[in-house]
Amino acid sequence: xxxxxxxxxxxxxxxxxxxxxLGYHINKTDQIRSIEKPDQEFHYFISKNxxxxxxxxxxxxxxxxxxxxxxxxxxxAACIRREVLxxxxxxxxxxxxxxxxxxxxxxxxxxxxxxxxxxxxxxxIYVGESCQDLGxxxxxxxxxxxxxxxxxxxxxxxxxxxxxxxxxIIVANPGQLIWYRRGQRAMTQQTWHAIPxxxxxxxxxxxxxxxxxxxxxxxxxxxxxxxxxxxxxxxPNKDAKIDIIGIGDGALEVVEYLQQDWKKWxxxxxxxxxxxxxxxxxxxxxxxxxxxxxxxxxxYLISPESLDAPLTGRDEFGCNCFSSSEPSYVExxxxxxxxxxxxxxxxxxxxxxYEAEPQNFSEVNGNG
Length: 368
Fold this sequence. Notes:
Number of helices: 12
């Protein structure tokens, strides 16, 4: 029998978590482009080796470890997650650690909330997909379009344009539920697999069910419960109305949570908008919530139709359905449709007793 000793195996790939060292920069229009070829987007498939591609992607997406300066302006050396979180901090978004009371050294999951959360009259809760990083909507949109459009930056800044009493927002973090002890931070499964290994062919580190989990946030279901019980339920302004945006599996988990004790929340939740509904009529078990869902729920579906075009689907999903104008990817629904969602929330807020009429129209093609 022959075997290769570890010292003879190929070393793991390493890429600097620094835009300039990776050969990119942020241009004047907030796009990530090649330094040598200013019109070229991020080159993802630099190799046929999957590990090489994986490590370069994580370096581009990562949080760099150096200090930041001039927080309010673009940091050309920072990579995507650091850049997004820095700009959100400059836009008055605070970091809250879950569970409440956790120190920076404790296992915890960070979420984001408006600095004026405790005094806001309306609060929007955003729960995205369980595969995304905090504050990120779609890396593909960040790469092809702008950093602001593919993240929560554009949404947060749009909320602040309200002439008076702008709604506060809470950005949940259902993706980063694995605790990396050496790095002292929470991360997604994808980032976990990109942690440096002994060799390029080594297996990823095992996830320890005790050491690498966050108490009360072991999965997306528990994260949503922790968010509502420890943050939303503790808001000092009990009269603040709550609007909810849910995308993909995040939407389903919010609906499942609310139904467990709908009487507790029915006087506070004003409206719900979901993207790519995973919520079928069979998921609606609480009669009271079902009535609310039919009157004040909206589903934005994958569809090539123009934004807000009515779609069939009420019989399957239990609420009125509309086109998101996104024909392919669930993660792009919110960037395409968030203005429509916010407009809907305002209509509901400005019209006490609002009830949506069941749609009645000739069938429009759309995919849910």
